[in-house]
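Homework help board

Subject: predicted structure for assignment chain

Our instructor gave us this sequence and asked us to write out the predicted structure in token form, then describe one feature. I got the tokens but I'm not sure how to describe them. Can anyone check?
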Amino acid sequence: MSTAAAALLQYRTWLVALTLFAEAAGEPIEGKLAVASVIWWRANGDPAQLERVIRAPRQFSCWNRGTPPEPPPDEPSQRAWRHCKDIATNLAQGNFAPQLFADHYHATTLTPSPTWARQMQHVATIGGHAFYWEGRKPKPTNRKVNQ
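My token output:
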């Protein structure tokens, strides 16, 4: 792997890990994997699309005010960060197996649910997030889903 390719892989891994941490650090591993699944489906399983998906305006709230902060040094945060980096490595390398069909989610603390959620198929609630599949597009049939 060239130096440039290694640097790009490292950047994509960091970008996804930071997003997962900011969005789901306090969630069980299943919740982190579900958020990663949303990123994966939105990127159509293409690591080259990860940055476009993650940094799209108003899609991942952790990026709405700029770059999210790095994880704090306490042990629970560092353990969550390690989990996020492991998952992110698989996404960045194109080796991720999505855990569910979901391309949208929101925190369950949002009441009422966002208006967009009412137009989508609810597929799961994991930890503090509700996950949805956009009803206008068919579920992919060419990708394995670990359920």
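Reply (TA_rk): Your tokens look well-formed. For the description, you could write something like this. Confidence is low (pLDDT under 50) at residues 142-147. That's the kind of observation they're looking for.
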